[in-house]
Amino acid sequence: MTMHATEKNPRATRNPDRKPVVVLGTIGHDAHIVGSSVLRIALEEAGFNVVFLGAVVPPEEFIDAARESAADAILVSSLYGMARIDCADFGAKCAEAGLAHVKLYLGGILVTDPEAWEETEKLFRDYGFHRVYPPQTKTEVAIADLKQDLGIA
Amino acid sequence: MDPILAIDFGSTYTKAVLIDRDAAAIVGSAHTPSTVGTDVTVGLARVLADLGAKTGVSLRGTPALACSSAAGGLRVAVIGLVPALSLEAARRAALGAGAKIVAAYGYKITPRALAELEALAPDIVLLAGGTDGGDEETILHNAQALARSKLRAPVIVAGNQCVLDECVDTLRAAGKTAHPAENLLPDVGHVSVRSVHDIIRSLFITHITHAKGIDRVAEHLDLVSAIVPTPSAVLEAARLLAEGTEGSPGLGDTVVIDVGGATTDVHSVASGAPTRPGVVVRGLPELRLKRTVEGDLGMRVNAPTIVERFGRPKLLALAGTAEGDLAEADIDRYTAHVSVRTEHVPADDRERSLDHALGRAAVRLAMERHAGHVREVFTATGMVLVQEGKDLGEVAAVVGVGGVLAHGRDARFVLEGALDSGTDPYSLLPRRAALYLDRQYVLYGIGLLSTIAPEAALATARHVLAPL
After folding, report:
1. B317 touches A at CB < 8 Å
2. What is the ipTM of this complex?
3. What is the mean pLDDT of residues B259-283?
4. Which domain holds residue B121?
């Protein structure tokens, strides 16, 4: 999608020691926190600066936190099957807030209806997510993708 | 007797209280109209003469402490990035330092906002934005805008530390006074106000009292410590009441509500952590010492807005209309009158009932805004309660200050507006707090004294605060 074209270098910084910043949390009316907690530890071990928002996070809070922390990526967890509602037009909301350059990742139990994964993935890619992960994805997979997308060796 | 004077240079009144530290008691108090507009020392001489006559104590050479909210108080403009994050952190920091927030801007400041800021001429500009290692662009843009502006106020830079020096240098190169501070929002989950508070306190002493001509009182008083903003003296009193001293326990979590003519101020000393099980807390973390100022809730200037916010039927019910002698039109007539005639004192029982109802409504609304709220969220695994703000349910003491409480006939009725009424299962208001009244308006003096003699200040507070 063209709205994710990188218009500015997100890591243009006066701070040479800056770690890549990722905002992480469980979106919507979802109280599951274990998945994102596990991912948090893995990300920190991999050298990321994690802005951890916890559970029951409205979409707007991800955007606020990403603006304030100049995040390179937003990682959204959803485990209760309502991602279709919570994540609608998430990419467009980010673009509106000046975050078109931020990479958007989504993972968890995204839908309750037994759709084919390809359709689910397409739905959320249309909502603006760059990467969409099915249940049981290993944290290493997402972290490797993240490093690749952010150009980190 | 070991006397000490505490003086408050207010915008309307200059007030003085003489405290005997040995007896931990108030010897006497006095107030006269303020003369800050002309010469602050004239009002001071009058109030001291009055107090000396009342108490029979010669006040010459008596050690003194003072605070001031005169000449507009401590007028601070706050600038941040995201309104709910760094801007909110800056607001809270300014309020906690006893300031009045005259302007607040999020994101990159516009030329229009800058012109507005120049016209407002704040005493201090507090510039925040970006977590450490986070956004650099916005605070740099805003520092450059302030550097180009005609503003002469000192700027406290309290944002992303990676560009702190660059912001400060930009401002100084343009001839501005800039003070580097620690980041108010070092990361999204933490608010850190101490460094900013220290700088505001020292600017108030070195610059602001001088600019407003208040430091001239130093020649006429034996000041034992620097003049502080009145709201920060009241916040110190709240902290002392809650926490006690090394030797004496305090009351526990405490709320102080000051119902004034133009604003209602709420101070809480409490963590605000949930008192119910299974609650998820959202939003910027709360400060243990929190001060909020409701600029639309006041007994005189802002009486009509209390009516608008609270609603006429509810207010009428509070005013007690068993005989049907009050109508909604009476409320509007009365509040329109007192908003202009701010010196108005209730003349009969009907007006007293109205004042009590307005006071209780102001206390209610100010407490609800200060505390925050809980809402139900239905998830796939059941209901979750999400709390934003402070849970004050277990607060032990609520202290009331202000004319409607001190001079009204039913202070308890007014202050009960602060308590959980039992009608809202998710109320965050105190459930069973003891109520106290600062009948003589001496809390500022308790707060001032606490900085040099906390034991005497606490003992005095125990004597003067009247349980309701």
Report:
1. no
2. 0.76
3. 92
4. 75-203
